[in-house]
Automatic annotation (TrEMBL):
Keywords: Repeat. It comes from Selaginella moellendorffii (Spikemoss). This is Pentacotripeptide-repeat region of PRORP domain-containing protein. It comes from the Eukaryota. GO terms for molecular function: RNA binding.
């Protein structure tokens, strides 16, 4: 039951269930810690849970790291990471994401290079970091180096072109995408609207079958 509340991110119900448990083990403690880390606004609760645990494993350490990261505290996220006796790919990705989200691109690059192994999440985290800051050259290099591409990667590269002002490149990439979703359409729509081709933006908007709040906002902002 506790795991079900945790997956549903029902903090009050999970906390009540946890308090009523006659016995708690590493799994139940870690479920609560991971829940507080994911939901946000519960950094102190996450720290209290971690400090109350009789033992820690890589999952609990990574959950605490994530809690600091989501709270915007990169310094303590890094401190936790350095204290970890054992790190797995999830731990490395969590530290990479902490640097990437906070805009510490150089530290994110260094972390990426030091990773003993990388998965798709690692590559996409770095790609998105470049993308949202319009660092097109680095984003393109990362995109081209990825061992496998998914829709998130395509959308991130499209966003990089849009933020960088490369409308022609964005159109070319958009046309070549093997699949698209509402995020793809909204990114392309934003590029058309922000870079001045309002007629093309209107045509794209009219053709969209799955208009989202983001797509409506793009049109209202563009016009």
């Amino acid at each position: 039951m506790l795991s079900a509340f945790g997956r549903a991110e029902l903090v009050r119900e999970a906390s009540s269930c946890f308090q009523k448990m006659p016995e708690r083990n590493l799994v139940s403690w870690t479920v609560m810690l991971a829940l507080f880390a994911r939901v946000g606004r519960h950094l102190e609760d996450a720290k209290n849970i971690f400090d109350s645990m009789e033992e820690h494993d890589v999952v609990s350490w990574t959950a605490l790291l994530t809690a600091y990261s989501r709270h915007g505290d990169v310094f303590y996220a890094c401190k936790v990471f350095n204290l970890m006796a054992f790190k797995n790919i999830v731990s490395w990705n969590a530290m990479l994401a902490a640097f990437a989200v906070s805009g510490h691109i150089q530290e994110a690059e260094e972390t990426f290079k030091k990773m003993p192994e990388r998965d798709l999440v690692s590559w996409i985290t770095l790609l998105v970091a470049y993308s949202i800051r319009g660092r097109v050259d680095e984003a393109r290099k990362t995109f081209n180096s990825m061992p496998r591409l998914n829709l998130v990667a395509w959308n991130a590269m499209l966003t990089a072109y849009a933020h960088g002002g490369f409308l022609g490149k964005a159109r070319e990439l958009y046309r070549s995408m093997p699949e698209k979703n509402p995020v793809s359409h909204s990114a392309m729509l934003a590029a058309e609207a922000q870079l001045g081709d309002l007629r093309q933006a209107q045509n794209l908007f009219d053709a969209m079958r799955d208009r989202t709040l983001a797509s409506w906002t793009c049109m209202l902002t563009g016009f």
